[in-house]
TrEMBL record:
GO molecular function term, any single one: phosphomethylpyrimidine kinase activity
Keyword Nucleotide-binding: no
Pathway: Cofactor biosynthesis; thiamine diphosphate biosynthesis
Ranges for domain Pyridoxamine kinase/Phosphomethylpyrimidine kinase: 13-242
SUPFAM superfamilies: Ribokinase-like
Name of this protein: hydroxymethylpyrimidine kinase
UniProt-listed Enzyme Commission number(s): 2.7.1.49
GO biological process per UniProt: thiamine biosynthetic process; thiamine diphosphate biosynthetic process
Keywords noted in UniProt: Kinase, Transferase
Keyword Ribosomal protein among UniProt keywords: no
One cellular-component annotation, GO: cytosol
Length: 248
């Protein structure tokens, strides 16, 4: 059988822990075929983001068109976008698709660097409306208006609890018209958490492309992230990368 084709639209992480690099590793380890549209270049390591260079929106559009028109696509993951113009271009290209779309509304890196300005965050509205699932962490959910605002949008989202305090991680899947699904698991105490959000969203996209239901995709993606956290190689002086390569 041919692998499901997953297009990651996101930023590049030179350190390899997050962004496009984490997406390619995740998609590949889960049996998918990874394609990319790079929205921004970052000079980044485990300690901080040293520099960011957004890609020209026309080039982002050209990358997406090249993948869609020749290779085809079975699911899309959206991550760091870099500018409101890029967010608009991405929405223009995706609004006619009928495949699962997972939107990770990236705003701040694990090391604390801002990766989206207010105008870019405002442009997220259209992408959230297009997405099959939006995957905010704790600060991202707050910036998007909290649970009340998300439910008012009438969209499916998972409120990730990895950034919250406490001995357990609580993730909540909210789907309009359905009962909330909640997962809890003991917190894995580690500083090597760089790229967890990118890994989670690209895993969900790959699993949806493989035919899983939304609930099944989230459940299996959580297990993939936890296994990758436990397999982290310990690289770097800051928030190190996950061990994607060790997850079977």
């Amino acid at each position: 059988m041919r692998p499901p084709r997953v297009l990651s639209i996101a930023g590049s992480d030179s350190g390899g822990g997050a962004g496009i690099q984490a997406d390619i590793k995740t998609i590949t380890m889960l049996g998918g075929y990874a394609m990319t549209a790079i929205c921004a270049l970052t000079a980044q390591d485990t300690t901080r983001v040293h520099a960011v260079l957004p890609v020209d929106p026309a080039m982002v559009a050209a990358q997406i068109d090249a993948c869609l028109n020749d290779l085809g696509v079975d699911a899309v993951k959206i991550g760091m976008l870099g500018s409101p113009q890029i967010a608009t271009v991405v929405a223009d290209r995706l609004e006619c698709l009928s495949v699962p779309i997972v939107f990770d509304p990236v705003m701040i890196s694990t090391s604390g660097a801002a990766l989206a300005d207010a105008a870019t965050i405002a442009a997220f509205e259209r992408l959230m409306a297009l997405a099959t699932l939006t995957t905010p962490n704790v600060p991202e959910l707050a910036a998007l208006g909290g649970d009340a605002a998300m439910q008012g949008r009438g969209i499916a989202y998972i409120a990730k609890g990895g950034d919250a305090d406490g001995p357990e991680v609580i993730d909540r899947l909210v789907i309009p018209g359905q009962s909330e699904r909640v997962w809890t698991a003991p917190r894995i105490e580690t500083r090597h958490t760089h790229g967890t959000g990118c890994t989670m969203s690209s895993a969900i996209a790959t699993l949806l492309a493989s035919g899983a239901s939304l609930e099944e995709a989230v459940e299996d993606a959580r297990e993939f992230v936890r296994a990758a956290l436990l397999a982290a190689p310990g690289f770097g002086a800051g928030h190190g990368p996950l061990g994607h390569q060790a997850v079977r």
